[in-house]
Specification:
Elements: E1 2-11, E2 14-24, E3 29-33, H1 40-47, E4 53-60, E5 63-64, E6 78-81, H2 93-101, H3 108-117, H4 119-122, H5 134-146, E7 152-156, H6 164-176, E8 183-187, H7 191-195, E9 200-205, E10 208-214, H8 215-220, H9 223-229
Parallel strand pairs: 3-8, 3-9, 6-7, 7-8
Antiparallel strand pairs: 1-2, 1-4, 4-5, 9-10
Helix pairs in contact: 2-5
């Protein structure tokens, strides 16, 4: 599925990623953790083509994503839910979802699939996105991404600012994507959210992947959490 091989990325003269390599399989959820400034969001933007890759490559199956312009990447099955959601606040819930559907010319069956995952959105289908609660906006941002029918979903801090009950609902939906074969790369600061969702965890520091572990191993030995995130359960 996703293969990131030795990528370097910079903002101007400042190098942010250095030889970053990892993979995500179909139906797998991988957590990407680290302190602020470690390079997690830049890694997601590099996959989406929003940050130029100076060395190395990014592939999704047989497609080399790092050779594509950013606007072509979603057409190959990659969807991105950025931190801050970035909805169209003046458009309705339905219209926001339809914007996602345009990427790969998805039909009404896709809309019904997404609304089944997020039934609260069906109740607000005509409501303007800007009037939704923070949790509902996060659901809509994720739902809009899924309307592209992605094979790979990139999530950047999806639980930020959400009540625990809404975080549980969102993570439950993300977990359910496994049965559809969707790969998920999850950037998340909340340790419990990662531990109850991910299969593996990658820890980044200073623009490199420093450590990789399974969630089962991390449950037994939480030293990497203290070392790379500065927290413990």
């Amino acid at each position: 599925m996703l293969s990131v091989q030795g990528i370097d990325c910079s903002y101007g003269n400042v190098q942010v990623l250095r030889g970053v390599s990892f993979a995500v399989a179909a139906g797998e959820i991988v957590g990407l953790m680290g302190r602020n400034g470690a390079g997690k969001t830049t890694a997601l933007k590099a996959i989406m083509g929003l940050v130029r890759v100076h060395a190395g490559s990014i592939g999704l199956d047989a497609t080399t994503l790092s050779e594509l312009p950013a606007h072509e990447v979603p057409k190959h099955g990659v969807a991105y839910v950025p931190q801050g959601r970035r909805l169209f606040p003046w458009l309705s819930v339905r219209e926001n979802l339809q914007m996602g559907m345009l990427v790969n010319a998805a039909g009404e069956d896709t809309l019904e699939w997404v609304l089944a995952l997020f039934p609260a959105l069906r109740e607000r289908i005509r409501q303007r996105a800007g009037t939704l609660s923070g949790g509902e906006q996060q659901m809509l941002a994720t739902a809009r991404a899924l309307c592209t029918r992605p094979r790979l979903l990139l999530l950047d801090e999806p639980s930020e600012g959400l009540m625990p009950a809404l975080v549980e609902k969102l993570l439950e939906t993300v977990n359910g994507l496994r049965e559809h074969g969707v790969a998920v790369l999850l950037v998340e600061q909340k340790v419990d959210a990662v531990l109850q969702t991910a299969d593996r965890v990658l820890f980044m520091e200073n623009g490199t992947v420093q450590h990789e572990t399974s969630v089962a191993e991390l449950q037994d030995d939480q030293t990497p959490l203290t070392r790379y995130v500065g927290v413990s359960r």
